[in-house]
Amino acid sequence: MKGTWTELPDSIHFWFGPSLIHASPSRVDDLHLNVLRLQLRFNRLDRGVRWLLARAPSFLRNWASIILPRWTLPPTVILKREEEGAEEAFDNELRMYKLLKPLQGTVVPKLYGMVNYKHTRALLLSDIGGLPLYSPKGPELGEQEFHEKVGKALRALHSVGVDHDDVKLDNYHLVGDDIFVLDHELSSEFNPENSERFIRGSLKRLWYMYSAHQRTMRYDGLRV
């Protein structure tokens, strides 16, 4: 299917502005076949320039990010391809990331830009790490802590006029002590006057899913 990787390639390359990016791919999970984690490959020149830029004034780093962005990208990034028949969803997510720019890197992934991979559009995003809320590997949150952490992230989105409409556990990642909100294809512009009512509804649904999932994992022996 166009826009997904049914088989994982050994390597990936694409143009990002004037830079040709070479990378080794791996899957982020088994649910999102249109998303890969990329370990970027750097030659000796790249490594030398990156070392110098890391110690350079910010205006030089900003200049380099425009001229040859591969010198300023982190070693690991996320590539998210447009799925077949999802042109409007991709356009919407790109638009939402522009609205979310003040929160990029703190509540949502950072968007480095849009690229074309084998005639398919894709977003190049930061790799936030952490674990999705459905993962048995992460800590189990109590109800109060859950509401505080997730509520803080949802309020941040509302503060810039965005509502996250794709309420699923895999779209919320615990990164350190913070929640990051992923996948904004269904997100929409939002009037913050009704913020608390919408947040209470979202938290109620998410807590129901989260607590039920935790009980299931304990029953299956994945939680002790």
From TrEMBL:
Pfam families for the chain: APH
Ranges of residues in domain Aminoglycoside phosphotransferase: 76-164
Superkingdom of origin: Eukaryota
SUPFAM superfamilies to which the protein is assigned, alphabetical: Protein kinase-like (PK-like) (SSF56112)
InterPro entries, per the entry: Aminoglycoside_PTrfase, Kinase-like_dom_sf, Meiotic_Drive_Suppr_Kinase
Family annotation (PANTHER family): SERINE/THREONINE-PROTEIN KINASE YRZF-RELATED (PTHR37171), SERINE_THREONINE-PROTEIN KINASE YRZF-RELATED (PTHR37171:SF1)
Protein name per its UniProtKB record: Aminoglycoside phosphotransferase domain-containing protein
Species classification: Eukaryota, Fungi, Dikarya, Ascomycota, Pezizomycotina
